[in-house]
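Researcher: Sequence of EMARD protein follows. Predict its structure.
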Amino acid sequence: DSITTCLSQPVHYAICKLGFEKKDTYDINNILSGNGEVCWQAVSDHVCYLESGQSVDYIKSIRSLGPVCESVNSYFKSLTKEQFVIQYASWFHWTNCTEVFLEVFDVLQSTQATEVALGLMKLTSCLERALGDVYLLKGSDCPFLLRDLLASEQLADVFGQAVMNVLRVFIGSPHGLNLRNVLWHGFASPQEIPAKYCAMLLFLTAGLGQLLQTYLLQTKGVLVHRPYVIFISLEELDAFPGNEILSIAEELVKLSSFVLKIMLPFWIAALTAFKQSRYADSVILLLPQLEAGLRLLFTTTNKCPNRLLTAESSALYTTFDEMLAKHLDNEEVNQLPVVLEEPAMESDFLWDFLNHQEGPRIRDRLSHGEINLETFPREIANQIVGFAITILCRFSDEDVFSLKEHMLIKPLMNCASCYQSRFHPISRLKKQVLECMKSIHLWPELATVPEEQVQKIKGLEENAETNTLILMVSEIISQLQYYMPQNCCSSDDPINSVLTERLLVELSDTRICTLYSPRPVLEAVVVLRKISAQCHQVSQQVIAGAGLRYAQWLNKSLRSRQRHNYGRMLNSIKFLSPVLRLILLLITLELVSVHSVSKKNPFDYQQYLKFLKSVLQYTENLVTYTSPDKNKWDETMELTRKALIKIKKISDRKLMLMHLPT
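Model: Prediction complete. Tokens:
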């Protein structure tokens, strides 16, 4: 309750006061031509420069542009929606988000500060994406940071340096108003963002559209919009139940110590947006508030209260990235995960949804304009809202015990306590292994020529080497029994009793701490994932090849040499299935003990990595030999024999992870 702002004194002054110091009334006609076009020269004349003449003087520029922004805001308020659409809608087409900018106009007509802040967040996100598309007219790799994008030569070539300097006063520079960052990182409360700055950015975006149209006509260029990110496999994101708990969520928001009271309107607006099926709006409002609440915990537990405020231009903000890190920038241990009641859950969820490269990376993609706001998935919004409610609950006073025991809250909290990372490399490896095993289990169902017909192929005798390889697999399985659940191995049929999908699922369910995995662990996991991917490709090639050859056999289109090759393929399948399943079992057993990597001495670790890379080499060669254009089945047999000898030797020498104490 005592916190009245999360803006440091200089930042608060720049945003809330500096642009109001000049009391002049500015004539809108100075920057607006008769046909409604922006007079960029008149606007850029208000940008001031330091004595060197090169660098923008942001303080003087904000002060000078204040009355201009006020005039633009008043001008927009004087227009009807129809007038605005007729005069400006076409100038927003270059953004590929015309509707978003028309919505911002509607917001400016209201008096709700939360809606203005939300409109400004959406505007900056869409504007950044559109500017990136323009950048690609002249450059190749678009900068990730808005700051670097606005400072690029490519945009200056298209719009002019003076125009880019105007934009940098409002967004993209830590020395300017930096409106995008203070909002998206949860520093600004609703009342601290003047509506006139939102109006000015709307005005400038239309002006950029006018300049771009002229540029494209002169250069005969075509602006191509990059496709939006499309989320697939949304079921993987399903951690929390539905939204029935929204009925009590608003009460929780008002009671939880996690919520800064100055930010309460954002929370209420986020929950309201969800109820209204405005899922992108809900998440855009929630993510900065989760960051603000966690920053409060972070600065309290690490005894650095000054970090709660926006940093100056010379220092970094305290953002999700730092709050989720293992160590602080001074190398001391971050205390935030220690004090969280369920540290793995909170951190794992946030890493999954925000940081892991194979996860949805919601905050990055929303704030940089990579997601179509109109089709934002309800499933993702549901998870963010569910997570937010669990963290509100954790940091509520005991007075709300009855609320925590509510029949709708308890299942949600149970889901939270059971949460395991889905997008950490270790979690992805588990998924890869199980998908590969499912593929290999399809082999027995493949339509193939009966065995007796294969044996009739002239010159294709039964190969004793196949049985030898299968026996070697059985011997290795016997060595591994100690590291597997009891009674899973039948002495009559060790291969088919052990190398099963059921066992891999059981082993994969073992909870593995993925948070702050040491570098050696991640290095090993990279190699294990490559091995698994190669095994899966072999399986897919076998399935495709067997199907094709069987069809050709039936219609008698196989030549003599092809019939021999088909027979060798069917012989090879007999040993390849147990060998690939053995490799998947080894990967899974390694995963269960994966954190023992860091306990290996340097020599053993290097030997271990060398062994993994040799297995990878074997699987890569398998992919080549089993490909449709190679079909080297005899060579596959010899390759496999050498690989099994190496696996058996390594296992004997106890260099594998599962032989180490966990």
